[in-house]
């Protein structure tokens, strides 16, 4: 006695369930990859900042002052930059395509690490008679819960806190930035002197000497 078997395809409902499951899994995987990428970018930012700090100290050891622009490519102290004498290339933010060459001419471009040099408070700051003896270096993080954000200095604009008694090399606060600022895309500490503290979560990882 032969028993015939009937072949049956998937029903529309079964196909929709499978598609929905695939969609959910894809969303989970995409979110995980995005989080991993952000975590990797922030780790790279920390490493870059530390590398720049070492270069800044080497620069100071030779010149007894800090540069006005870490990306500058010509001139003499404090108008020259760190590369190539103190570091091969001054890094830019890993999430963008900004080049060091762009940062050399326009250091406030998003993607350039935010940097400001300071001298002791005076009208003629950052000259040979009143050299730049302090710096403030920062970058915005993608991960707002990164524990490194609780271990940085959160330095305010020049004139208060750890910056008390200092004046920014570009003038009375011009070009200065607050370590309590939120970040702008792609991940850079805000560079907007004189503005009120922006609302939102602080994402600026900043260091000073």
* Structural classification: alpha+beta
Helix content: 25-40%
Radius of gyration: 25 Å
Note the gap between the termini. Answer: 92 Å
Based on Cα principal axes, name the global outline.
elongated
Mean of residue pLDDT values? 84
Domain count = 1
Unreliable segments of 5+ consecutive residues: none
State the total count of DSSP E strands.
Answer: 6
User: What count of helical segments does DSSP give?
Assistant: 2
Give the biggest beta sheet. Answer: 4 strands, antiparallel
Secondary-structure element series: HHEEEEEE
Q: What share of residues are in beta strands? A: 5-15%
Strand order of the largest sheet: 3-1-2-6
Gist of the model:
The chain is of the alpha+beta class and 209 residues long. It has one domain.
Write a concise keyword list for the protein shown above.
209 residues; alpha+beta; four-stranded antiparallel beta sheet; two-stranded antiparallel ribbon; 2 helices; 28% helix; elongated
């Amino acid at each position: 006695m032969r028993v015939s078997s009937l072949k049956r395809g998937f029903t529309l409902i079964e196909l929709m369930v499978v598609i929905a499951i695939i969609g959910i899994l894809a969303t989970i995987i995409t979110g995980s990859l995005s989080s991993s990428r952000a975590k990797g970018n922030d780790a790279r930012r920390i490493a870059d900042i530390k590398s720049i700090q070492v270069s800044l100290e080497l620069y100071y050891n030779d010149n007894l002052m800090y540069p006005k622009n870490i990306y500058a490519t010509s001139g003499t102290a404090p108008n020259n930059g760190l590369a190539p004498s103190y570091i091969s290339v001054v890094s830019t933010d890993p999430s963008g395509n900004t080049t060091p060459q762009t940062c050399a001419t326009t250091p406030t471009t998003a993607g350039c690490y935010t940097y400001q040099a300071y001298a002791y408070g005076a009208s003629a700051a950052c000259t040979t008679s009143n050299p730049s003896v302090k710096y403030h270096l920062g970058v915005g993080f993608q991960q707002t819960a990164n524990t490194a954000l609780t271990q940085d200095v959160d330095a305010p604009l020049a004139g208060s806190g750890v910056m008390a008694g200092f004046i920014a090399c570009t003038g009375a606060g011009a070009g200065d930035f607050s370590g309590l600022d939120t970040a702008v895309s792609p991940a850079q500490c805000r560079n907007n002197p004189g503005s009120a503290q922006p609302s939102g979560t602080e994402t600026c990882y900043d260091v000073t000497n």
